[in-house]
Amino acid sequence: MSAEKDYWMELFEEFGPLTEPMCDEIPDLAMDVPKWVSKLQFQMVNLVAPKLQVKAGMKMNPDRLGVFVGFNLFHCTQTAAMLEVPKPPEGPRLEAFMSGAKLMGGAGIFGREDNVKRLQDLERGLRRIVARVLDERPLAEAVPFFKGFTRGIQGTGIGLVPRIVDGVPQYTPRQMQTMSTMMIYMVILRDWKVIDSLETSMEAYEYLSKRIPPEILGFDAERIRALFHRFGKTFKAPGRPASR
């Protein structure tokens, strides 16, 4: 590997620890995990930032790192705005909102004081990476990084912050679908050990249905089986849960 490639990989590895505090409530992700769990983590990033297309074994270059840093600064702005989103009125939307807030609070998405500090620390760390590139690389070498950074900070993905009308958040159907899928992914990631021990997709669906409101999970077990298939989690042939 050339010295230049070593440099961009070093910056990327510096990026990793910046995001760890945002996921400190999800157990066992520092240890070796099944391949499908790693793919799930990549899938979660790609869900909100489809142009990044994170994957295992991905080679790092200045353009790709610039997109990473720019998008995560954009994400900090979105997340800070999400902290200010008011609760929906009573009903299914409020139940879904509270379930999402409880679930995602550990990952730094909802909450107040601790999560604001985490966001501020992450943003400062990202800005340090930008400053390092300016200080340490010739401008000609830095150009691809800042081209990628520009694309990333414009928001290469789906905006999740709703419009607020008369104090009520107004989500588009696409936003609702993306947020629902992300919440399902986060339950799976949080409980991956339990889910990995289940034998059928129906068992997995029934497990999730006890932890995720139907407004988020839905009623189609086949859809959940297909969702698992996206990141390589396989089960026995569909059928009734195995007797225990």
Describe the secondary structure blueprint for this structure.
Layout lengths: L2 H17 L15 H14 L13 H21 L9 H13 L8 H24 L2 H15 L9 E3 L2 E3 L2 H18 L1 H6 L3 H9 L4 H4 L3 H10 L14
Antiparallel strand pairs: 1-2
The main sheet comes to: 2 strands, antiparallel
Distance from first to last alpha carbon = 52 Å
Any idea what the radius of gyration is? 19 Å
Total domain count: 1
Assess the beta-strand content as a share of residues: under 5%
Order the strands across the largest sheet as they lie in space.
Answer: 1-2
What would you call the shape? globular
Task: Kindly state the percentage of residues in helix.
Answer: 55-70%
Structure summary, number of beta strands: 2
Number of helices: 11
Which structural class is indicated by helix and strand composition? mainly alpha
Sequence stretches where pLDDT stays below 50 over 5 or more residues: 21-30, 105-111
Mean pLDDT: 77
Give the ordered list of helices and strands: HHHHHHEEHHHHH
